[in-house]
Amino acid sequence: MSPTNPLLEGGCDCRAVRYRLESAPLFVHCCHCRWCQRESGASFALNAMIEAVRVTTLGVAPELVLTPSASGRGQRIARCPTCRVAVWSHYAGAGPIVAFVRVGTLDDPDRLPPDIHIFTISKQAWVVLSPDTPAVPEYYDRDRYWPAESLARRAALVPLIDAYEAGLR
């Protein structure tokens, strides 16, 4: 994100759901797993991980739809109640604390290229990855790839995630 224009906005096709990212994301994943391929209907999903409190809803609130996931714990996909476009997800691991914003729903998605390609073991054979972006066969070691600032922001989230998890028991 540019220092002269740090905020990004996005939304659904019908523009009923609009949102703003109040800071840079923690990290941007380009996930090539078969679950993301199926859910997106494309060859991968490009998600910007960000603290949910840093996503401001500007229009109609999205509807959270519980869907299956590879973990077996499901994910909640935030969809426009009118056009049904998915704008972000909350995966079971962090629940409502972290949003995985669909980069393609940003008004200027070119500003958030992937920081890493994950689950490349199941990527479509015809997808060619840039050698300039890290790529791993499955998941990755966060401490190795995330910038220090993002690791510090995540550390601040851990107690909230732990409290969320405890509330589920």
Describe it.
- With 169 residues, this protein is α+β, with helices and mostly antiparallel strands.
- It has a single domain, classed as glutathione-dependent formaldehyde- activating enzyme (gfa) (Alpha-Beta Complex).
- 19% of the residues lie in helices and 28% in strands.
- The strands form 2 sheets. The chain has a 7-stranded mixed β-sheet.
Supply the key terms.
169 residues, glutathione-dependent formaldehyde- activating enzyme (gfa), seven-stranded mixed β-sheet, globular, three-stranded antiparallel β-sheet, 28% strand, alpha+beta
Q: Give the number of helices.
A: 3
**pLDDT below 50 for ≥5 consecutive residues: which ranges?**
none
- CATH class equals Alpha Beta
Total number of distinct structural domains: 1
Topology:
Blueprint: E1 8-11, E2 18-21, E3 27-31, H1 34-40, E4 45-51, E5 55-57, E6 63-67, E7 75-79, E8 86-91, E9 98-102, E10 116-118, H2 142-145, H3 148-168
Parallel strand pairs: 3-10
Antiparallel strand pairs: 1-2, 2-5, 3-4, 4-9, 6-7, 7-8, 8-9
Give a quick precis of the structure.
The chain has 169 residues and is of the alpha+beta class.
